[in-house]
Design goal:
single chain, 482 residues, alpha/beta, Rossmann fold, Arc Repressor Mutant, subunit A, 3 domains, 5-stranded parallel β-sheet, 3-stranded mixed β-sheet, 18 helices, 12% strand, elongated
């Protein structure tokens, strides 16, 4: 019996459908012995960061949306979050280092050109003053000055891709200049507790590819359109408290967390033995080569300017499958459905599946249309993230929590070799909190309904429980002798 239980994507099937990313994730998981889904999140973050400036995905109903992802991983200290993030973002951060060096050189050139320009401007201004009443000289000087002013050197703008520990205003200014960026934090408390989350409405708009307009006192307003922002946050469970903190309810209520792929992986601490580690890195190196190729195209697109992103489309079969999936998600919002208390999350889930499908397709092949097979892989990834979202943001009802605790007690009784017990026996040993208000009986009803246990009346007319209902009962019990 389970409630919002997490499944695991099949690594073998993933590697078969998406070998470049799948094998890199598998190798990172094996070599770093970090949670598999933590490694998967690292790979997707790198993909999204690299691809978002080059391609959009056309939804089956015709709307074009970004391939950018917002991702959140919640894992305790010591899970090697930073190590995994650095490894998968290696090529992107290396490009950032190169861009910074190029910017330093460009700024030096700009300063020299600016000195020359100012000197020429000063000379022409003096000529205007000295022209006296000579209209011809005055007209020629004015024309030269106009041409000079039109040719004022342009200050080179930063082309940074990855932003860490940055204020929302600085981030928006950077996006206004470059049009693309990735907000990464392996210590996500910097973002959650900092000023960046004051910009939640703007982050929401950027995810949806809406225009961001911001008036600033004494400074030029910002009008950001067609920009792309990727967000990757890593947090420890004790820091991430969606129901506490002064901004928690505000952020959830704005629909912000609903846009995220949430990863809440099982810990590997205590099982990271040296005998399980491998020393081969060829799949991660192949991943790096593919990322470098994509980043090279992205740099060229910036140089050319006015670059139109490629439109990634679904095949007819994949589009039909996506519609079925979208309908299932929508029906889950109904009372008693999977998304009854998470309609905000459900409303963005179908689009996130489409974005991940496009990223996998672009990274693995970059040709043709998204296949049904690729869509299935994206679906399995996003539905696992959906399980994690529900576990973190939609706590189960009290009777479900009590049933899980009661089932632990039942398992201990089974370990003692008992199968048939009286209800009173279980009631006396249940957790103290369940002994009032009928909580024990409601939890018991859940276990009976789920078929974890079954009830019967013994020969003494006592209410009893069978803790292993899947096993055949002995004839003496079937005949009523106890």
């Amino acid at each position: 019996m389970a409630y919002h239980m997490k499944g695991e994507i099949n690594p073998a099937a993933f590697c078969q459908s998406c070998p470049l990313l799948g094998e890199a994730v598998r190798q990172a998981h094996q070599n770093y012995q970090a949670p598999y889904r933590l490694c998967l999140m690292g790979g997707l973050a790198a993909l999204s960061s690299a691809v978002q400036s080059l391609a959009d995905v056309v939804m089956p109903y015709g709307t074009k949306v970004p391939t950018s992802l917002y991702q959140l991983v919640v894992a305790p200290s010591g899970e090697r979050k930073s190590t995994v993030e650095r490894r998968f973002m290696k090529e992107i951060k290396s490009l950032d280092d190169n861009l910074e060096e190029e910017l330093s050189i460009s700024l030096a050139d700009y300063k020299v050109k600016m000195l020359e320009w100012k000197s020429q401007k000063k000379q022409l201004e003096k000529q205007l003053v000295k022209s006296g009443g000579d209209d011809q000289v005055l007209m020629e000087t004015r024309e030269e000055l106009r041409e000079l002013l039109a040719s004022e050197p342009t200050k080179p703008q930063p082309a940074k891709l990855v932003y860490e520990d940055i204020s929302p205003m600085a981030m928006l200014i950077a996006l206004n200049e470059t049009g693309v960026g990735t907000l990464v934090s392996s210590e996500g408390a910097i973002i959650v507790d900092g000023k960046s989350f004051d910009a939640v409405p703007y982050l929401n708009s950027l995810w949806s590819d809406d225009k961001v307009s911001l008036a600033r006192v004494g400074k030029p307003s910002l009008n950001i359109s067609n920009a792309r922002l990727d967000v990757s946050i890593m947090l420890q469970p004790e820091i991430f408290s969606p129901y506490t903190g002064k901004k928690g309810e505000k952020i959830r209520g704005s629909g912000h967390w609903a846009r995220y792929l949430v990863f809440y992986p099982e810990s590997t601490q205590g099982t990271r033995l040296s005998t399980r580690q491998a020393n081969s890195w060829e799949h991660l190196e192949a991943f790096d080569r593919r990322i470098r190729g994509i980043l090279s195209r992205a740099r060229m697109a910036r140089v050319v300017g006015d670059f139109e992103r490629e439109e990634i489309r679904f095949s007819e079969e994949a589009a039909a499958e996506w519609y079925k999936l979208a309908d299932n998600i929508e029906e889950g919002i109904l009372s008693g459905g999977r998304f009854e208390n998470a309609s905000d999350h459900a409303s963005k889930l179908g689009e996130n599946i489409a974005r991940v499908s496009a990223l996998l397709h672009y990274f693995e092949t970059g040709r043709g249309e998204i296949s049904q097979e690729t869509l299935k892989v994206a679906e399995s990834i996003c539905m696992e993230c959906s399980d994690d979202f529900l576990e973190l943001f939609v706590p189960p009802p009290e009777e479900i929590i009590d049933a899980l605790e009661l089932n632990k007690l039942i398992e201990r009784i089974q370990d003692d070799g008992l199968r048939f017990i009286r209800k009173t026996y279980l009631n006396k040993r249940c957790p103290n909190a369940q002994r009032t208000g009928g909580r024990f009986f409601r939890a018991l009803d859940v276990l009976l309904r789920e078929g974890v246990i079954s009830d019967y009346v013994d020969g003494n007319n006592a209410q009893c429980l069978d803790l292993c209902p899947d096993l055949q009962r002995p004839m003496w019990l079937v005949n009523g002798y106890h």
